[in-house]
Write a structure and sequence with these properties.
The complex is a heterodimer of chains A (301) and B (320). Chain A is mainly α and 301 residues long. Chain A has 14 helices and no strands. Chain B is built from 15 helices and no strands. Chain B is an all-alpha fold and 320 residues long. The N and C termini of chain B lie close together (9 Å). The chains are: A mainly alpha (301), B mainly alpha (320). At the A-B interface, helix 6, helix 7, helix 11, helix 13 and helix 14 of A face helix 1, helix 7, helix 8, helix 9 and helix 13 of B.
Chain lengths: 301, 320
């Protein structure tokens, strides 16, 4: 905080657009030097590529049912064996990556849009708008995410689209709170007062001056949010209330392991999808923490 | 303090109101109506269209939504949560049966998380950049990233299937009289897995808070007075570092509740989570509504309590 204050007079004098390019370079440098974040990024890139090019890598159709060889162990034909319907586990693992990563990215994109909109409204206009937004956030935060999402699954039926919409509509309060907090403190800063005095419109103030300077913690929260969304999807699909078979998802591939026979003697059915979830979430967490350290070096203790 | 308490309570009122409204609206977005959900469609068509309308009227379903919300709210305030669609039991009875197992599981898990997080977090901070510190970081990342149900499956595989040390399901052995050791053996796996998942944020918090506190001037003063390092840490640093832990625990309650729902399913634990899943699969809306309402109120109350306890134990905090 002390270091930030020392920086302030400079920021106040120069327009923020002038000193931003330099800041961006140092943020990039710090981020590229963050070894865990780079490792996470590499793993994530690998997972994303394997999901995108799944049709080229997979050697059999993930939906092809072969009841003559169900729950067969790993072999040359099926690297990770086959599942309860005789489908190739390796192919399903690759295609499941598409589902899990899509759910994570799209749902977070939705709730970030809502959170940024509401947070900016509350933080910029204050008064009753701010109070309403924050009480609304309190209400949303009072429901445990999993319980409210299974409720929505009961009402609207479980599907990928409904899952994405549910996470997307419910996840905005943390983003809104973070952005609002940033805006409340930025609002009083000299460069904003100066911009206002020189006749900048509200829209210009928000989009040109306030948001670019308030986005850092939002980006970090969004990145870590993707990890949480993937975990949430996995949990719901595992319970049978998220992505529905035959569409593969890492979560619903684990559903079979609730049977003790599968658990005790068919590890190829449940170890790979579990490890993939862990790997993806870990990589995103590394990336998010790296971003946090790079964007705000003073935050790190 | 009195004014702060009053203001904090007043803020909770609209939130509580919002919680009931949200619960009611979500469930009433469901297609169909309770009568059609309960009675065989063929039977309804045999009885003629007039019968359905009459039934709806007698149940008050012909009233507009705001009126129905008012009636529902009045009943909820009086402790009537309605009747289950699946077995006609009063929802309050169902909740009473399932609430205690969940609370038992959550409290044990929270206790395990604390017993793990306090010593590990403190030691990691005192020996920053040591092997223990790195192991702690790896542990935190691991338990935050690996889904708890996958950890649970792994634990069942090792401790129940391979080693046959612990049971895999339920709260006690079926068909045998209840004994404490038996109940404890059933509790160990689910509570530990849930506790591990809850421990990670606590460890991170304890570690960073201790790191910050041991660098404060008053801790240096305590050292300069010639106090033993142990006394400096426990009497001076620890006490102040741990005050906000109350808030951290309260804020993590929603995650604990979400984790309980999944783990109860894995371990066939007869709690609120299992009840919730059964209710969702059977589209038992009154029960679903009650579970949402109760968990939301639990979270609201715990946040309120955390704020009050925080204000009470930390005299530095002045609230206007």
């Amino acid at each position: 905080m002390v270091a930030r204050l020392a920086e302030e007079p400079m920021r106040g004098l120069a327009t923020p657009t002038l000193d931003r390019p330099r800041r961006r370079v140092s943020v990039w440098n710090r981020f590229l030097r963050h070894r865990l974040a780079m490792a996470g990024g590499a793993v994530l890139l690998f997972l994303a590529l394997s999901a995108i090019f799944a049709p080229l890598i997979a050697r059999s159709d993930p939906y092809a049912i072969d009841l003559s060889s169900y729950r067969a162990g790993p072999s040359a034909a099926h690297w990770l064996g086959t599942d309860s319907a005789g489908r190739d586990v390796f192919s399903r693992l690759l295609y499941a990556g598409r589902v899990s990563l899509t759910v994570g990215l799209v749902s977070v994109a939705i709730y970030c849009s809502i959170g940024i909109l509401l947070g900016a409204l509350g933080g910029f206009y204050g008064s009753w708008i701010d109070t309403t937004v924050m009480r609304l956030a309190d209400v949303f935060l009072s429901f445990p995410s999993l319980i409210i999402i299974i409720t929505l699954a009961a009402v609207f039926g479980p599907s990928i689209t409904n899952l994405i919409l549910a996470i997307g509509v419910l996840g905005w309060p943390p983003i809104a709170r973070i952005l609002r907090g940033e805006l409340l403190s930025l609002r009083e800063r000299e460069f904003i007062v100066a911009a206002r005095a020189s006749g900048a419109s509200n829209g210009r103030l928000i989009f040109r001056y306030l948001l670019p300077n308030a986005m850092a913690p939002v980006i970090v929260a969004a990145t870590l949010g993707i990890a949480y969304a993937i975990l949430l999807e996995a949990g719901l699909s595992f319970l049978g209330l998220g992505v529905q078979p035959p569409t593969p998802s890492w979560g619903n591939m684990l559903t079979d392991a609730q049977s003790l026979t599968v658990l005790s003697s068919m590890p190829w059915l449940w170890l790979p999808p579990g490890l993939m979830i862990g790997l993806a979430v870990l990589a995103i967490n590394f990336l998010g923490d790296g971003l946090r350290d790079a964007l705000d070096p003073y935050l790190q203790k | 303090m009195g004014r702060y308490l009053l203001r904090r309570l007043l803020i909770s009122v609209p939130v509580l109101f919002g919680i009931t409204l949200a619960t009611f609206v979500i469930v009433n977005l469901a297609p169909g109506d309770p009568v059609s959900a309960l009675i065989d469609p063929q039977q309804i068509s045999a009885l003629g269209p007039g019968w359905l309308a009459q039934q709806k009227k007698s149940l008050g379903l012909d009233q507009p939504l705001p009126v129905r919300y008012g009636i529902w709210l009045k009943e909820v305030v009086q402790g009537n949560l309605g009747y289950s669609y699946t077995d006609r039991q009063a929802v309050t009875t169902k909740i009473k049966q399932h609430l205690w197992p969940t609370i038992k599981l959550m409290l044990t898990a929270q206790l395990i998380a604390l017993l793990l997080a306090l010593p590990v977090g403190i030691l990691a901070a005192l020996k920053q950049y040591s092997v223990l510190d790195y192991l702690t970081t790896i542990f935190s990342y691991g338990t935050l990233s690996i889904p708890s149900f996958f950890l649970a499956l792994g634990a069942i595989y090792i401790f129940a299937v391979k080693l046959s040390w612990l049971p895999t399901a339920g709260m006690s052995t079926v068909g045998r009289p209840w004994t404490f050791p038996d109940a404890l053996r059933h509790l160990i796996l689910p509570a530990t897995i849930l506790g591990l998942a809850q421990a990670a944020p606590l460890i991170r918090y304890v570690r960073s808070s201790m790191l910050e506190t041991v660098r404060q001037d008053y801790v240096q003063v305590a050292r300069a007075k010639g106090l033993r390092e142990g006394a400096v840490i426990t009497r001076h640093a620890l006490r102040n570092a741990l005050i906000p832990l109350v808030t951290v625990i309260a804020l993590d309650l929603p995650r604990l509740l979400s984790g309980t729902v999944i783990l109860e399913q894995v371990f066939a634990w007869p709690g609120m989570g299992t009840l919730a899943i059964t209710a969702v699969l059977g589209r038992d809306y009154p029960t679903i509504m009650a579970i949402n309402l109760i968990s939301a109120v639990m979270i609201l109350v715990s946040n309120l309590l955390a704020d009050l306890v925080y204000a009470w134990i930390d005299p530095r905090i002045k609230y206007s």
